[in-house]
Amino acid sequence: MGDSGLRERKKARTRETILREAFRLFRERGYAATTVEQIAEAAEISPATFFRYFPAKEHLVALDRFPPLVEALAAQPPGPPVTVLRGAFRTAFAALSAEEIAAGHAREVFAATVPELLVANLRRSPGLIREVCEVVAGRAGCAADDPRIRNAVGAVLGVVAMVWLAWAGDTGMDGPAEIDRALAHLESGLSL
Amino acid sequence: MGDSGLRERKKARTRETILREAFRLFRERGYAATTVEQIAEAAEISPATFFRYFPAKEHLVALDRFPPLVEALAAQPPGPPVTVLRGAFRTAFAALSAEEIAAGHAREVFAATVPELLVANLRRSPGLIREVCEVVAGRAGCAADDPRIRNAVGAVLGVVAMVWLAWAGDTGMDGPAEIDRALAHLESGLSL
DNA sequence: TCCGATATGAGAGTCAACTCTCATGTGAGA
DNA sequence: TCTCACATGAGAGTTGACTCTCATATCGGA
Question: Which of A115, A116, A150 is the closest to B162 by Cβ?
């Protein structure tokens, strides 16, 4: 039952191949213009097998592999919402840098056609947002449905989304650092 | 060539019928679960005709009919980004209240399944965002690609999005007023 | 080495968005 | 009233995501 057998390793390798080839194609011709059949062919599997690895094409661009932001949030000391969220992003990205960026995945994710990526992920985000609000409210000593919490979380997510978009268009940018700078700016009241 | 003929009036009526029936079905069974064929049947037109009115099912939920935010922005006096944007939202919603909310459209839009509505619209938003950034930069006396502008616009849009979501889930809420309150909170530095 | 569980491929099939063509009907202007 | 432009319906066709079934191949344990 361990995951060390040849079978498991083979599955993991197939999974990686699918992801790698899929993102390569997305980069070349865009998300919508890439068919599952093409991905399957590039990964040298049958289309049927593709769906045994991913329940839907959408799931390829899921940010499930994103660093556990909520976890990082829970580890933050109490403080005002924006400060707590900024710290959480820093923590989460520190973990990501070591693992995912270094592994070369992150670049592929960002290089993928961005609007579609956002679109596919937004469908899953309401739950995440609620969770974030709850933890932040706890750290700030407010109720989870306090408008001030909602506003702070919204502002942070908006700022991060904008940087994210800019990052996707400029692979030379140091994303995590830029996000931290932007959140510092927000923390200081968006001064001019 | 005027738009006062019987032909034009008929087309307008058909268009309204399609929208009304579509949103009714969306509300009843969700966006994804509603097929174009069902919409066409409810509106008493053929599926082919549906596509003569809307190039894609997605276009039904486009916020193209949203108040001209960019226009309202251009009418704002110079000032810091958040202040300018807050004023623009107020102006834009004032126009909307009289026309669209009263016409009963707004409620239908908000009552529609929210995730898919957001998803469909996000695809069209990059252009809007860039436009907003440019105007705001002009009003604040900065370059359009100034990170501070980007951050402010991101924060405002994030805050508005959160209120919007809450509004969709609580039709009793006074959306425009709540958005204005939220932006005032952001303007004052998200104080606790 | 043999057997059972499981991964895969092949291929047919479903479903829905969207396109195209062609025939018909109905306003608009002369 | 006549005629032309155009809106519509009918219906077939295309595409791509996703499902199902069944035969085959391969791994893992006995």
Answer: A150
Q: Which residue from A161, A178, A72 is spatially nearest to A119, judged by alpha carbons? A: A161
The three-state (H, E, C) secondary structure of B72-122, written as one string: HHHCCCCCCHHHHHHHHHHHHHHHHHHHHHHHCHHHHHHHCCHHHHHHHHH
The C-alpha of B57 sits at a distance from chain A's nearest C-alpha, in angstroms, of: 16
Give the pLDDT score at B111: 46
Nearest-5° Cα angle at A69, A67 to A72 = 105
What's the whole-number average pLDDT of chain A?
84
pLDDT confidence bin for A110, thresholds 50/70/90: low
Residue B136 structure tokens = 């705001």
Q: Any chain A CB within 8 A of the CB of B152?
A: yes
CA distance A162 to A179: 9
Percent of chain B residues past pLDDT 90, beyond the cut: 52
Contact assignment for A156 to B160 by CB distance below 8 Å? no
Delineate the domains of chain B, giving CATH numbers in brackets. 6-58 (1.10.10.60), 63-187 (1.10.357.10)
Q: Which positions of strand C lie within 7 Å of protein CB atoms? A: 6-12, 15-21, 27-29
* B150/A186 Cβ within 8 A: no
Strand D at less than 7 A from CB of A51:
yes
DSSP alpha helices (H): ranges in A5-124? Answer: 6-29, 36-42, 47-53, 69-74, 81-96, 102-103, 105-111, 114-122
pTM: 0.81
Inter-residue contact B69 to B88 (CB < 8 Å): yes
Q: Which candidate from A151, A182, A189 shows the least CB-CB separation from B182?
A: A151
pLDDT digit string (tens) for B119-159? 666 666 677 788 899 999 999 999 999 999 999 999 999 99
